[in-house]
From TrEMBL:
Alphabetic keyword roster: DNA-binding, Transcription, Transcription regulation
Biological source species: Nocardioides mangrovi
Stated name of the protein: Crp/Fnr family transcriptional regulator
Family annotation (CDD domains): CAP_ED
Domain Cyclic nucleotide-binding: 5-109
Domain HTH crp-type: 141-210
InterPro entries named among the record's database cross-references: cNMP-bd_CS, cNMP-bd_dom, cNMP-bd_dom_sf, Env_Response_Regulators, HTH_CRP, RmlC-like_jellyroll, WH-like_DNA-bd_sf, WH_DNA-bd_sf
Domain of life (superkingdom): Bacteria
C-alpha cells in the first residue's frame, strides 16, 4: 500500500524503511500492545481497524481513538536516549496487519540514510497537529458537533462512498467524543429521525454524509 507518511523520503529510503520493518498479523480482539509496557517500536497500520484504549481514573477502559490503514502508533519509541512506555492499549477490532519498525532498526537506518530523520519529524508533526485539533474541539465544540465530525471521520474510514456501516456501539461513540451515553443517544436519535443515520444493534449506518457536513457549517 501507499504510505503518505513516507512521502518525504526517496524511493530508496522508503524501501529501506519498509525492508527494516517486520510484518505482524493480528486476529479480531487481539491486543497488539498493552498500556504501560516498554515501547520499542513504531507500528504502521497496513490493514484493519484498531482501537486505542486508555485506563481511566476509576479503573475502567475508554476508547479514545480508532486507527485504520495508513495510520501509526509508537512514534516516541524512535527518539534516542529515552526509555518510553506505551501510553495506550491497542486492540484489533478486526483482522489486522502492521509493519513494525524497531528503535534499533531505525537507528541503523539513520546511520545509513540521515534523511530518515525527516520521517520522525513528520510523524511527530502530524501527531501534534492531531492533538491540537482534538484539544481545540474538546474546548470549544459542542457535543453535537463533536459527534457529527466523528461520524464523518468514521464513515470515511469504513467506506469510500454511499451508505457506510460503522460497527461501533453507542458507548464506544460516547467515549470517542467525550460524552455520556444518554447524551450521545439523544443526538443519534435526532439524526436517525432526520434520515441522516440508521441505528442498529452495535452499529450506526451513515446514510447522508452531505447532511453531516452541512451540520458542521
Amino acid at each position: 500500500m501507499e504510505w503518505p507518511l513516507l512521502a518525504s523520503l526517496t524511493e530508496d529510503e522508503r524501501t529501506q524503511v519498509l525492508g527494516s520493518a517486520r510484518r505482524h498479523r493480528y486476529d479480531r480482539g487481539e491486543i497488539l500492545v498493552h498500556e504501560g509496557e516498554p515501547s520499542d517500536s513504531l507500528h504502521l497500520v497496513a490493514t484493519g481497524r484498531l482501537a486505542v484504549r486508555v485506563s481511566t481514573a476509576d479503573g475502567d477502559n475508554a476508547t479514545i481513538n480508532l486507527l485504520g490503514p495508513g495510520d501509526y502508533f509508537g512514534e516516541l519509541s524512535l527518539i534516542d536516549g529515552q526509555q518510553q512506555v506505551r501510553t495506550a492499549t491497542i486492540v484489533a477490532l478486526e483482522p489486522a496487519e502492521t509493519m513494525a519498525l524497531s528503535a534499533s532498526a531505525f537507528r541503523e537506518l539513520r546511520q545509513r540514510h540521515p534523511a530518515a530523520d525527516q520521517l520522525l519529524l513528520r510523524l511527530m508533526a502530524r501527531r501534534i497537529d492531531e492533538l491540537s485539533a482534538r484539544l481545540l474541539e474538546a474546548t470549544y465544540d459542542t457535543l453535537d458537533r463533536r459527534l457529527h465530525r466523528r461520524l464523518l471521520e468514521l464513515s470515511a474510514m469504513y467506506g469510500a462512498q454511499g451508505a457506510v456501516t460503522v460497527p461501533l456501539t453507542q458507548e464506544h461513540l460516547a467515549e470517542l467524543v467525550g460524552g455520556t451515553r444518554p447524551s450521545v443517544n439523544a443526538i443519534l436519535q435526532r439524526l436517525a429521525a432526520d434520515g441522516v443515520i440508521e441505528l442498529g444493534r452495535g452499529r450506526v449506518t451513515v446514510l447522508d454524509r452531505d447532511r453531516l457536513e452541512d451540520l458542521l457549517h
